[in-house]
Design brief:
The complex is a heterotrimer of chains A (306), B (288) and C (267). Chain A is an alpha/beta fold. Chain A is 34% helix and 26% strand. Chain A folds into two domains: 219 residues, Rossmann fold (3-Layer(aba) Sandwich), CATH 3.40.50; 63 residues, Alpha-Beta Plaits (2-Layer Sandwich). Chain A has eleven helices and 13 strands. Chain A has a six-stranded mixed sheet with strand order 5-6-7-3-8-9, sandwiched between helices. Chain A has a four-stranded antiparallel sheet with strand order 11-12-10-13, covered by helices on one side. A three-stranded antiparallel sheet of chain A has the order 2-1-4, with helices on one face. In chain B, α3 packs antiparallel against α6. Chain B is elongated and about 75 Å long. The two termini of chain B are 41 Å apart. In chain C, β1 and β2 form a beta hairpin. The longest helix of chain C is centred in the middle third of the chain and has 30 residues. Chain C is built from 13 helices and two strands; from the N terminus they run αααββαααααααααα. Classes of the chains: A alpha/beta (306), B mainly alpha (288), C mainly alpha (267). Chains B and C meet through α2 and α8 of B and α2, α3 and α9 of C.
C-alpha cells in the first residue's frame, strides 16, 4: 500500500497550471524524488501533500487521508523541510526545536530530551545555545531537518534540501539523510540537481511544466533515455553550430548547446577519434558517463540548470 | 544529555524513538488547542524583547503622566479649570492608558505579520504542523492581547500612584485597553495579511490613521471641543470608545447607560470581526 | 589643517558628495515622495488638534518676554523645532542603520571611489533638504493661520535647518556605536521625553528647579525657546545663548561624526 497516492492532480493559479495532471505513488520506506527545473511544479506538489496548498482538481491521499480535510492528522505524520528556511532567528537552536515541537502538542519533558538527540543527529550539539543567525547555511539546513523530525514523522518532505550550500555542506547533509533512509523513514525530495537525485532517490519522476515526463530509478532512466557515455567537445562559441553539419553520423545523438556540443554514444573515446579523423580539432574534449542531466536534456530539449 | 558523542547515538531509533505521542493524539490536540499552541510560541518568542517591553511599559506611563498629566494639567487647570467635572490629570489619565496600548497594537499587528508571511516566515513553519492557518491567526491575536494586560496593569498602577484614579472599579481599564487594542489591531492585522510588498503602507497608517486618532479622538480634550463636523473621527475610532469606557470606570464620567454599552458593543464587534477576517485571510494566504 | 588631521581624513573623502545626492533625489523621485510629503502632516495634525482642541481648555499662555499668546501660537514654533529634530534624527540614525545593515547600499557606494565622508555628507545634506522643505511648508501653515506675527518668523526656516544639522550630525555619530535594533530603540527612549518636557506643549515652571535645569541643558529646549522668540520677534538676553548652543552643537557634532566615520561605515 502506498503512503502517498496522487491521481490526476492539478493546481492552477489563474491561467497557469503549476501542476498539470500528475499521477504518482510513494511506497513506505521509499526515497522518492521529484526532479525538475525551477517552476516545474515540485514545491507546489510538496505543499499539496502537507495540505498547505489546496488542489484545483484530482485526488491525493497521504496515509489514506485527504490532506485538505484531515490537515492536522496528515501533518502530525509529516516532517516538512521547506525550500526557504523558516527558523525563528530570535530563538536559539535548542529553543527552535522545542518551540516547534510544541506545535505538535508534545510535552516539554519529552521535547527536551528529543531536542538533544536531534541536535546530536544534526551535528549541532555544540551550537545548542547559539542564535540561529550565527549558523552557516549548512548548519541552518541541518537544524531545519532536525526540526522536521521533532514529532517522529513517518514521512519527511524535503524541498530542495541542498540548494545554496557549498559542496562539503551538501555531503554532510546527504550523509544525515542517508541515515534516515536506512532507518526506514519515507523521504520525498525535490531537487533540480541530478547528482542529488542520484545520491538520495530510489525512484524519481522527472517534472517539467507541471507534468511528469518520465519515471523510474536513476539507473533505469539513464539506460532508457541516454547512451552509456557522452563526449563533450568545444569548438569556440561561434563555431559550435557551424561544425555540427560535419559531425553527421559520428554519434547516436547530437545536442548543440551554446557553449559546447554533446555527442551521445556507447564509447566516447571512439567517437572522439572519429571527430578528429574528419579533420576537426576541438579546443577541449571530455568523455564522461551519462547522467540525469542528459536524461532531462533528452526529454525536454532544455538544460536542467539555466 | 549533550555530552553524548554523536557517533554513540543510536541513530536507528532516532526517527521513531517511540517517545512522541501517537500521531492521532498530536492531531487531536492540534485541532482543539492549535490556537493556544501558537499563542504559547508567540509569547515565548516575545521573551527576547522582554527588557524593551518592560522599560517601555514602566517608562511610558511615568513620562506621559508627568508631562501630559502634571505639566499640561497645570496649564489646563489654571485655564478652563475642570474638564468633565474633574482635574485634567484625572480626565486625561485613563485616556492615556488606553491610547498608549492601542498605539502599540498598531506596531504589533503590522510588521510582525509581514514578517510571519515574508521575512521570517514562521506562519508557514507553523502551518506545516497540525496547527491550521486560522488557528495561527487567532493565536497571534491572543498572544498580543495577553501581553497587553500586564502592560495596562503597570500603567494603571502608575495612574494610582499619580492620584489619577481612586475608584476600585478603575482597575477594569486593565481589560478595556487590550479590548480596544484588539478592536483596532485585529482588523489591521487582517489588512496586513493581504499585503505582500514591504512599502510604506504601514508608515502611512501610522501617520494618517493612528496619529490623527491619538490627537483628534478625544484623548486630550472631549470630542465636543471640536466642531461637530469633525466629531465623526471619534465615533469611528476604537480608541475613543475605549477611552470613554475607561473614563466611565476611572472617575465615573457621566455617560448615558446605553452609550456605555454601545462603546462596549462597538469594541467587541470590531475585535470579533477582525479576528474572523484575519483567520479567513490567513487561511487563504497559507493554503494558496 | 595640521598634518595628522589630514591623514585622519585621507581616504575618507573623495569630494564627490554630488553622486550621493543624485542618488538620494532619484530615490525620492521614484517612490518615496509620498512618504516625504506625509512627513509634513504630523506637526500640522499636532498643531490643529492641540492648538485648537486643547487650546479651548487652556486659554492664553505667557510667552517670551511676558507676552500673552494664544495656545496655538505658543506651541506652533515648538512643533517646528521638534519636527526639525525628529526628521534629522530619523534620517541620520534609522535610515543610516537600515541602509547599512539591510539594504547594503553603503557597501555598494563604498566599493566605488566614494569615501565615507562623501556618503555621510550626502546623507546629512539630504536630511537638511528635507528639513528645509518641511520648515517652509510649516511656516506657510502658520502664516495662513495668522500665528506668525513678525517678519522675524522668516528666520525660523534657517534656524530649523541649523537645528536639523546639529541633531543629524550627533545622531549619525551616535549610530556608529549601535549594532542591534534594541540599541536603536534607545534613540526613541531619548527623543520622546525630550519632546514631552522641553516646554513644547506647556511651560516647565511646574517642575522642581533641578528638573528645570536638566531640561534646560537639553538641546530641544533651546530650539523651542529660540523658535518661539522668533515667531513673535520678542528677544531676551538668552537668545544668543540658544543660538550659540546650536552653533556649538553643529560644529562639535560634525567633528565628532567625522572622527567616527571609520567606525560607522568601515566595519
Amino acid at each position: 500500500m502506498s503512503v502517498i497516492e496522487a491521481r490526476a492532480l492539478v493546481k492552477s493559479y489563474g491561467e497557469l497550471n503549476a501542476v498539470d495532471g500528475i499521477d504518482f505513488d510513494v511506497a513506505p520506506g521509499e526515497s522518492f524524488g521529484l526532479l525538475g527545473p525551477n517552476g516545474a511544479g515540485k514545491s507546489t506538489t510538496m505543499r499539496m501533500i502537507g495540505g498547505t496548498s489546496l488542489r484545483t482538481s484530482g485526488t491525493l491521499t497521504v496515509l489514506g487521508l485527504d490532506p485538505e480535510t484531515h490537515g492536522p492528522e496528515v501533518r502530525a505524520n509529516l516532517g516538512v523541510v521547506p525550500q526557504q528556511d523558516n527558523l525563528d532567528t530570535e530563538l536559539r537552536c535548542r529553543e527552535n526545536l522545542i518551540t516547534y515541537g510544541r506545535y505538535f502538542g508534545l510535552p516539554r519533558s519529552y521535547l527536551r530530551g528529543r531536542a538533544d538527540d536531534l541536535l546530536a543527529f544534526a551535528q549541532l550539539t555544540d551550537k545548542a545555545d547559539e542564535k540561529v543567525d550565527n549558523l552557516s547555511g549548512g548548519m541552518k539546513r541541518r537544524l531545519t531537518i532536525a526540526r522536521g523530525l521533532i514529532n517522529e514523522p513517518r514521512i519527511l518532505l524535503l524541498d530542495e534540501p541542498t540548494t545554496g550550500l557549498d559542496p562539503q555542506a551538501r555531503h554532510i547533509l546527504w550523509d544525515r539523510l542517508f541515515r534516515l533512509k536506512e532507518e526506514g523513514v519515507t523521504l520525498v525530495v525535490t531537487t533540480h540537481f541530478m547528482d542529488e537525485a542520484e545520491q538520495l532517490c530510489d525512484r524519481l519522476v522527472v517534472m517539467d511544466h507541471g507534468k511528469i515526463v518520465a519515471e523510474g530509478s536513476p539507473a533505469q532512466l539513464i539506460r532508457r533515455y541516454s547512451t552509456r557515455e557522452v563526449l563533450e567537445v568545444r569548438f569556440g562559441s561561434d563555431r559550435n553550430a557551424a561544425v555540427v553539419a560535419q559531425l553527421d553520423g559520428v554519434a547516436e545523438r547530437i545536442e548543440v548547446l551554446p557553449d559546447r556540443v554533446l555527442l551521445y554514444s556507447a564509447d566516447g573515446e571512439a567517437t572522439l577519434e572519429q571527430v578528429t579523423s574528419r579533420g576537426l580539432q576541438p579546443i577541449t574534449s571530455l568523455v564522461r558517463r551519462s547522467s540525469l542531466e542528459d536524461v532531462f536534456l533528452r526529454l525536454t530539449g532544455r538544460s536542467l540548470i539555466d | 544529555m549533550t555530552d553524548r558523542a554523536p557517533e554513540l547515538l543510536d541513530s536507528n531509533r532516532l526517527a521513531y524513538a517511540g517517545g512522541a505521542l501517537p500521531a492521532a493524539s498530536q492531531a487531536r490536540i492540534g485541532r482543539r488547542w492549535g490556537w493556544w499552541l501558537y499563542a504559547e510560541y508567540r509569547l515565548t518568542s516575545m521573551r527576547a524583547y522582554l527588557p524593551t517591553i518592560l522599560i517601555r511599559s514602566i517608562g511610558l506611563p511615568l513620562l506621559y503622566l508627568s508631562s501630559m498629566g502634571l505639566g499640561l494639567g497645570a496649564l489646563v487647570d489654571s485655564g478652563a479649570g475642570r474638564v468633565e467635572g474633574v482635574s485634567y490629570l484625572v480626565f486625561v489619565g485613563p485616556a492615556l492608558l488606553v491610547s498608549s496600548i492601542v498605539m502599540e497594537s498598531s506596531g504589533e499587528f503590522t510588521y510582525p505579520v509581514m514578517s510571519g508571511f515574508k521575512w521570517q516566515r514562521h506562519y508557514f513553519a507553523a502551518s506545516a504542523s497540525p496547527i491550521t492557518p486560522g488557528q495561527v491567526a487567532v493565536g497571534e491575536i491572543v498572544a498580543v492581547g495577553l501581553r497587553f494586560i500586564p502592560e495596562a496593569l503597570l500603567f494603571w498602577l502608575a495612574l494610582v500612584w499619580f492620584g489619577g484614579v481612586t475608584a476600585p472599579a478603575s482597575v477594569l481599564m486593565v481589560l478595556i485597553a487590550p479590548l480596544a487594542a484588539l478592536a483596532f489591531g485585529a482588523p489591521l492585522m487582517a489588512f496586513a495579511a493581504t499585503q505582500t510588498d514591504e512599502g510604506s503602507q504601514f508608515a502611512f497608517i501610522q501617520r494618517f490613521v493612528v496619529m490623527p486618532m491619538f490627537l483628534f479622538a478625544g484623548t486630550f480634550f472631549p470630542l465636543s471641543a471640536m466642531p461637530t463636523y469633525l466629531q465623526w473621527i471619534g465615533w469611528i475610532s476604537p480608541m475613543w470608545h475605549g477611552t470613554q469606557l475607561a473614563r466611565v470606570v476611572g472617575f465615573g464620567m457621566t455617560n448615558p447607560w446605553w452609550l456605555t454599552w454601545l462603546h462596549l458593543l462597538v469594541l467587541v464587534v470590531a475585535a470579533g470581526g477582525g479576528i474572523v477576517a484575519s483567520a479567513r485571510l490567513f487561511e487563504r494566504r497559507l493554503t494558496r | 589643517m595640521s598634518a595628522p588631521a589630514s591623514r585622519t581624513l585621507s581616504g575618507l573623502y573623495a569630494g564627490n558628495v554630488r553622486a550621493v545626492l543624485e542618488r538620494g533625489f532619484k530615490v525620492i523621485g521614484n517612490q518615496n515622495w509620498t512618504i516625504v510629503v506625509s512627513g509634513f502632516f504630523e506637526p500640522v495634525f499636532y498643531l490643529l488638534a492641540m492648538g485648537y482642541g486643547l487650546g479651548g481648555l487652556v486659554g492664553t499662555v505667557t510667552g517670551p518676554g511676558g507676552a500673552e499668546m494664544s495656545y496655538v501660537a505658543f506651541i506652533a514654533p515648538a512643533l517646528l523645532a521638534t519636527s526639525a529634530m525628529n526628521g534629522a534624527i530619523y534620517d541620520s540614525t534609522w535610515n543610516v542603520f537600515f541602509k547599512m545593515r539591510f539594504g547594503r547600499i553603503y557597501e555598494a557606494m563604498l566599493s566605488t571611489s566614494l569615501g565615507p565622508l562623501d556618503v555621510a555628507a550626502g546623507e546629512i545634506a539630504m536630511a537638511l533638504f528635507r528639513g528645509l522643505l518641511y520648515a517652509c511648508a510649516f511656516l506657510g501653515v502658520m502664516g495662513v493661520l495668522g500665528i506668525a506675527t513678525s517678519w522675524w518668523a522668516l528666520a525660523m526656516v534657517p534656524v530649523a535647518v541649523l537645528i536639523a544639522l546639529g541633531f543629524a550630525a550627533v545622531g549619525m555619530a551616535v549610530t556608529s556605536w549601535f549594532t542591534t535594533f534594541q540599541q536603536m530603540d534607545l534613540i526613541n527612549i531619548v527623543l520622546l521625553p525630550m519632546f514631552l518636557f522641553s516646554a513644547t506643549l506647556f511651560p516647565i515652571g511646574v517642575y522642581p528647579q533641578a528638573v528645570q535645569w536638566f531640561i534646560q541643558a537639553l538641546p530641544l529646549w533651546h530650539g523651542v525657546e529660540l523658535m518661539r522668540q522668533l515667531s513673535i520677534g520678542a528677544f531676551t538676553d538668552a537668545t544668543w545663548l540658544h543660538l550659540g548652543y546650536f552653533v556649538v552643537m553643529s560644529v562639535a557634532g560634525v567633528a565628532f561624526c567625522t572622527l567616527r566615520l571609520r567606525a560607522l561605515f568601515l566595519r
